[in-house]
Amino acid sequence: MADGLDWESLTEATSGAVGALVSTTVLYPLDTCKTKYQAEVQSHGQRKYRNLSDVLWEAISTRQFLSLYQGLGTKNFQSFISQFVYFYSYSYFRRWYLQKNGAKSIGTKANLVVAAAAGACTVVVTQPLDTVSSRMQTSAFGKSKGLRETLSEGYWSEAYEGLGVSLLLTANPAIQYTVFDRLKQRILMKQSSKVADTKSSPAALSAFSAFVLGAISKSVATVVTYPAIRCKVMIQSADTEDESNKDTQSKTPKTMVGALSSIWGKEGFPGLFKGLQAQILKTVFSSALLLMIKEKISKYTWISMLALRRAGGVLTWIDELVKTGRATKDKNEKWRLDTGKDRT
């Protein structure tokens, strides 16, 4: 039973999922403000939000501060599942590639392919939750609906709106984790000489180093893919219910081409990067915090997995003993019936 599981991949997946859960909860109000700011597309004279702080001020002035947490449960669930699937897939594909090629390390190009494949698996599994989460965040403060109600509003095909853009954005974590791994390997190579003669656990990044490397890698990935990120938010956002803006706001675009056309027609080229600073601020801190937590708890997660593996081995051993005992008992019973005597 224990040998049938990829324990290393399971450890990576669990550590990444826990890190995602913590980082999502801590930074959720910032994420809500960022998402609502990105989703708005209006001409310059008709903007509701001129900057990120306007979203925060609206929540405070309308006494809806707690609405900054609307959709938190769904987002946490989506983040946990997403990171678990991603880290498990990434670790599994990486190990498969190394074993197939007999290599000790994976090159940059191969790492990009592996990360993109893991990202594609993640998107297909979590897209409905991602869409629902975005709609809950972009709803008017105090008017967000629950997960079940939001899903039941339309057809299941609508839950996969933005799937094409999401698949395109698998390049984002691919770039991020490739940059992170490259920088991480360089740092650990300098530290390896210090533990080369010991039998201690493998060298790990310090919390500060993991935070800095996570911030750098995510910044690079965010800048490169930001226009697609904003298009995805627009496609998945909730339709406005503000009557005063009914004539000035068009219906939410449902394709990347439609989103790009809407942005270009109303905001021009700068609109493609509207909210970039907020996106970098949120994603950099989120990813850096996620990777920092993942690095620090990986050791303890691995110890827990080893304990589970050993427990599974013990259970298998007990199960074998029970089966052997039953077989012996059945054999003795058959012998007694055949001979009419008890076997001593």
From TrEMBL:
GO terms for biological process: fatty acid beta-oxidation; peroxisome organization. Solcar repeats lie at residues 7-96, 106-186, 205-300. One of its GO terms (molecular function) is ADP transmembrane transporter activity. The keyword Transmembrane helix applies. The keyword Transmembrane helix applies. PROSITE patterns: SOLCAR. Its main location: membrane. Keywords: Membrane, Peroxisome, Repeat, Transmembrane, Transmembrane helix, Transport. It is a multi-pass membrane protein. It is found in: Peroxisome membrane. Pfam families: Mito_carr. SUPFAM superfamilies: Mitochondrial carrier. Belongs to the mitochondrial carrier (TC 2.A.29) family. This is Peroxisomal adenine nucleotide carrier 1. It comes from Ensete ventricosum.
